[in-house]
Design goal:
Rossmann fold, six-stranded mixed β-sheet, 2 domains
């Protein structure tokens, strides 16, 4: 186990997350491998039932003043942000697949608006179509890959989206580092490149950092 593990984060962590790793003795390199921009919606949109699978979708709703009456969310943070806008959250699931399954089984009579990004995964729409759930897709943010060629070696690499995995893979080999993933969808993308994957217990950057500490500095968690 390296005394001062070298870690690469494929997004810029928050100051408290950075501090936690640096305080534990990690050498931290941070590079944003994707760039997200919110879309401007010209036509007014009102959704009685909205599917929100990321915080970026919630930000876009807020920016465009889209009216949402009920929300079905992926991730506790997405749900919390949605609730903070005064929007009732009916369902919170850990993954898009899980959310689609819940909607298909228990809420299939509703018509939905799926607010998504341009690089959204196909799982949720496929499950809804197969179950004959009525929905429209509205693209409210765009994800752009920003590939970097990374020099040197790392003991661990942090990934927060499938798009970041693809962006990293464009100019870099995965080699032997442990890859830390924010959730199952990102882990599925990583399986195309490596078998050394640790998935966070909950889909948040804080839990990714926690897994890094567990792997390399378990004694720090006992203090």
């Amino acid at each position: 186990m390296p005394e001062n593990p070298r870690i690469l984060s494929t997004k810029i962590l928050s100051p408290p997350q950075q501090e936690r790793l640096l305080h534990a003795g990690f050498s931290l390199v941070q590079l944003a491998f994707i760039k997200v921009s919110l879309s401007a919606i010209s036509e007014p949109v009102r959704a009685k039932h909205a599917i929100l699978t990321s915080k970026n979708a919630v930000k876009a709703i807020q920016q465009n003043r889209i009216i949402v009456e009920n929300a079905y969310c992926v991730g506790e943070k997405t749900a919390a942000m949605t609730s903070s806008l005064g929007i009732p959250v009916k369902v919170v699931a850990e993954t898009s697949k899980e959310l689609a399954g819940i909607i298909a089984e228990h809420y299939s009579e509703n018509k939905y608006v799926y607010f998504c990004g341009n690089l959204r995964r196909p799982d949720l729409p496929q499950i809804l179509r197969k179950s004959k759930v009525d929905f429209d897709e509205v693209t409210v943010y765009h994800t752009e890959r920003v590939p970097h060629e990374v020099k040197g070696s790392f003991d661990g690499i942090l990934f927060f989206s499938p798009s970041a995995v693809e962006s990293y893979a464009q100019n870099n080999k995965f080699g032997n580092p442990v890859c830390f993933s924010i959730g199952p969808t990102t882990s599925d993308a990583l399986k195309n490149h490596t078998s050394r994957i640790i998935t966070a217990k909950k889909p948040s950057a804080e839990h990714v950092v926690l897994e890094v500490l567990k792997e390399f500095k378990p004694n720090m968690l006992k203090k």
